[in-house]
Amino acid sequence: MSSHPITEDDLHGFVDHLLDSARRSEVQTYLDAHPEIAARIATFSRQREALRAAAAPIADEPIPPRLNVRHLMEGRRRSQAWSWRSMAASVLLLVVGGAGGWSLRDTAVERSEASGIAALAQEAAYTFDVYGVDRSHPVEFGATDKAQLVSWIASRIGRTVSVPDLTASGYAFMGGRLVATPHGAAGLLMYSNGQGQRLAMLVRPMAIDRDTRMSEHSYGDINGVTWASKGTGFSLVGPAPADLLHPIADEVRRQE
Amino acid sequence: MDDAGESDVGVPSTQEDALRRDDILGAVGQLPDDQRSVLLLVSIEDVTYAEAARILDIPIGTVMSRLARARARLLKLLEEQRKPASDRPHLRRVQ
User: Fold this and answer.
1) Residue B93: inside a domain, yes or no?
2) Looking at residue A11, what is its pLDDT?
3) CATH of the domain at B64
4) Residue range B4-13: average pLDDT?
């Protein structure tokens, strides 16, 4: 027998194939000598395999990125800013439906992700992730077509968006586009400073959180400040630190 | 198993082998959220216990205790699901 006693943790490690080969054979020897425990562990192993088999058809389906644990772990490795708690929330959302499929169950976490300025902040970060780094075609309408851009956005989001002048903060207006969010169309306005660093503002109507104070947030490498005023939500995002973005957000708000 | 007797922990292996997809998913669905998240991470996502602890922001000891509770509870739930089957009239009860 082993110099270290076999613990319950070892038994689960055995079930989950997480032991090194030396410890694994020690546990196997122990199980051979304890048939009752061996029977329980065999049952746990069968349950594990049954669960994996049951989940396999689901695992083959494309799942939303935010539910994909591996994807979230990649995000974590890219930046310390990603909270593991967000990931835990995703895991909690993975619940098992009666018909045998994954389903999203209504939870406080899901509600907060699906609505309000938290959702807007996330949408802005995702949008920046795509267009903010695009070198060939970051905007649909350039700064010279500002009037056309404003009218396009207004016609789709149902309200007029004024384009803030951020030259005093060192950022020149590049142009913008209409983007899709889970909450409908939104306007994206893009700015760039002398060093080519960009920031973007996402604007859309808010169903809830129609008037909220500014809050700072980070998704991966993208920081932001998000708020809502008179039913319109604004999220200013970019790679600049939040303490630099905040005064710019104040400036945007002054010009509203 | 030939040696399955009084010490038999649960049900005959033929029934164990027939762990149906709906049964296992239904039982997992009945676990408390904290236990289920640990079980799914470890069983399906193949994360280590240390990774699960970081993901869920809980100590590794809590991961282990939740995992142990999840598996014990799952065993009980699956046994309960089978009770009606073992009560079928054509099955002879051994006293």
Assistant:
1) no
2) 96
3) 1.10.10.10
4) 44
Q: Of B37, B16, B34, whose CA–CA distance to A44 is shortest?
A: B16
Instruction: Provide the residue type at A201 as one letter.
Output: M
> Which of A82, A88, A196 is closest to A133 using CA atoms?
A196
Q: Dump pLDDT digits (tens) for A167-222.
A: 999 999 999 999 999 888 999 999 999 888 999 999 999 988 888 889 888 887 88
**B2 min Cα distance to partner chain A (Å):** 12
CA distances for A95 relative to A217, B25, B51, B80, angstroms: 27, 9, 20, 21
CA-to-CA separations, B57 to A75, A88, B62, in angstroms, rounded: 16, 8, 10
Q: Would the CB atoms of B55 and A88 count as touching at under 8 Å?
A: yes
Indicate whether B53 belongs to any domain.
yes
Give residue for tokens 């998000």. A226
How many folded domains does chain B comprise? Answer: 1
Q: Is A219 left (phi over 0), alpha (psi -120 to 50) or beta?
A: beta
Query: In terms of residue numbers, what domain contains B50?
Result: 30-80
Chain A residue at shortest CA distance from B55 = A84
Which residues of chain A, if any, have pLDDT below 50? 1-2, 63-67, 72, 75-114
ipTM field: 0.71
- The answer as to whether B63 is a domain residue is yes
Domain-located, residue B39 = yes
What is the full DSSP assignment across A35-83?
Answer: HHHHHHHHHHHHHHHHHHHHHHHHHTS---GGG-HHHHHHHHHH-TTS-
Residues in A touching B44 (Cβ below 8 Å): 51-52, 55, 59
CA-nearest of A115, A106, A103 to A181 is A115
Between A and B, how many residue pairs show a Cβ–Cβ distance under 8 A?
Answer: 103
Q: Is A9's CB within 8 Å of B64's CB?
A: yes
